[in-house]
Specification:
This protein has nine helices and ten strands. With 243 residues, the chain is of the alpha/beta class. It has two domains: 163 residues, Rossmann fold, CATH 3.40.50.300; 68 residues, no CATH class. Helix 6 links the parallel strand 7 and strand 8. Helix 3 packs parallel to helix 5 and helix 4 crosses helix 5. The structure holds adenosine-5'-triphosphate and magnesium ion (MG). Adenosine-5'-triphosphate (ATP) binds next to strand 2 and helix 1.
Length: 243
């Protein structure tokens, strides 16, 4: 379970998060929606301890990650897979090296054969078999995104944070990423947070949706509750993102 309590974060005088409260139960898939710049990516980075909050706390399985030492934080991070917005691959490395990186960081005793096997399994899972030797520059934006997802999955995480997993993908590929998110949730019982602008994806994958606005969680409910809400802030946001 992930519990976020009264989370505050500002950059200089830009108050981004101003008291975010959120609970994600084990096995649940939560979608987070909200306008560009409202702090969705910042929230994900706070959840894995890549950023430190100014106030408030993030508790993973009852442990406040902001009170952990480096080793303890590292142990908690191992539970997470993180698909960064824009994939964040290293351009000078091949695809397989990009994926190895998080594997080798987590387990120093893996044989090369085992690493190769895991990399090829994850690339197949995201629909990109055989591209191990390519460089990121040779791939389309959508392919890079899927490599980022393969990298997030390589350690078999219990929690997966997806930052815009379907942005820039065509509708068919978006559907297949949604199916993968559902598969990981149902078969492996991962707990997921999906930050997205794609309301189709929300409908497909999410048990619950939370909308961020003005530094807080403005609304939480089901997809239908968001879609049918009479609240003008929600309506104004959703009408631009649903056809
Ligand atoms: N490391 C940082 N240093 C300074 N400001 C930052 C930093 N990271 C994020 N911000 C600021 O925090 C605000 C929220 O950024 P964030 O990336 O979380 O938005 P977002 O909701 O993910 O937007 P989008 O939908 O466009 O991805 C923005 O104003 C951004 O400029
Ligand atoms: Mg973002």
């Amino acid at each position: 379970m992930i519990e976020i309590i009264d989370l505050h974060k500002q950059f200089e005088d830009n108050k981004v998060l101003q008291g975010v409260e959120l609970t994600i139960k084990q096995g649940e898939t939560l979608a987070i929606i909200g306008p560009s710049g409202c702090g969705k990516s910042v929230l994900l980075k706070l959840i894995v301890g890549l950023l430190q909050p100014d106030r408030g706390s993030v508790c993973i399985e009852g442990k406040n990650i902001n009170n952990l030492n480096k080793t303890e934080l590292y142990e908690v991070r191992k539970l997470f897979g993180f698909l960064f917005q824009g994939a964040a691959l290293f351009d000078s490395m091949t695809i397989e090296e990009n994926i190895w990186l998080s594997l080798v960081e987590n387990d120093h005793n893996l044989s090369q054969n085992k690493i190769d096997e895991i990399v090829s399994e994850k690339l197949e899972l995201v629909g990109l078999p055989g591209i191990q030797k390519k460089k990121p520059a040779e791939l389309s934006g959508g392919m890079k995104k899927r490599v980022g997802l393969a990298r997030a999955l390589v350690t078999n995480p219990q929690y997966i944070l997806y930052d815009e997993p379907t942005t820039g993908l065509d509708p068919i590929m978006s559907d297949s990423i949604d199916e993968l998110i559902i598969h990981l949730n149902k078969e492996i019982n991962v707990t997921s947070i999906v930050v997205t602008h794609d309301m189709f994806s929300v409908k497909n994958v999410a048990d619950k949706v939370s909308m961020m606005h003005n530094g807080k969680i403005y609304f939480s409910g089901t997809y239908d509750e968001v879609l049918n809400s009479n609240d003008t802030v929600i309506q104004n946001f959703v009408k631009r993102t649903v056809l």
